[in-house]
Design a protein that fits this description.
This protein is of the alpha/beta class. The chain has two domains: about 150 residues, no CATH class; about 110 residues, Ribonuclease H-like superfamily/Ribonuclease H (Nucleotidyltransferase, domain 5). Helices cover about 50% and strands about 15% of the residues. It is built from nine helices and seven strands. The protein has a five-stranded mixed β-sheet, with helices on both faces. A two-stranded antiparallel sheet has the order 6-7. The chain is globular and about 55 Å long. The C terminus is likely disordered.
Length: about 260
Amino acid sequence: MKKHNPFRYFKTSPEIIRLAVMMYVRFTLSLRNVEDLLHERGIDISHETVRYWWNKFGLMFAREIRKKRMFPLHNHSNWKWHLDEVFVKINGETHYLWRAVDHEGEVLETFVSKRRDRKEALVFLKKIMKKYGAPKVIVTDRLKSYRAAMKNIGNERTQEVGRWKNNRCENSHLSFRRREYAMLKFRQMRSLQKFVSIHSSVFNHFNKERHLNSRDTFKVRREAAPVEWQQLCAAQIPSIHDTQRLVRIRLTAPSNRIKTMQYSI
């Protein structure tokens, strides 16, 4: 069966699209900041083009990252999960962003709701356990909705509550908070849920876990992450011999002056 090429009707190279989406989602940059950084590399696009790219390809890249990290099966740890919720303002109304993090700081799941009662906590727990199975320990804060939802499921014995036990999840909120302030908050629940889904996958992909690995392992992972990012959806792109078109781009800033892109057809 022939795979569909998502970049088929785009004149821009897929490498440039991946670079723009990565810069906007991973770093605390605005759309115009990404436009200026790409302009220094000889890539002349509009900030609205960056907005369109991350809206169209962001979920596709995040889905590809999750697929590679979850398969083969049992490629994740079910030892300890940390659950917490974040207060997010949308048009002046308070919403709640539920987040689940494992013991190494990797974001497992995100979920946006208008309330934080037992019903929403139950939906959140079922959503995680459907993907990853049942953990041995679940660390939460003192919110009673967790206890009520876990009693419904039947795993209330795995819950742990402590004053500083949930710091792993509390610290993982910082990257999202910085990104939220750079984007000047959110205006819709749908846009918030879409962005946190993309942001969590990109964060997991580029998270080198410095505190757990040696310097040599950290350097290997740091070099491998950008290479793997440039290979996202690459299997669906036809080869150069099929298209008879070669695009040369400059991914690093030029040493002297900004040069224009070179195309050879």
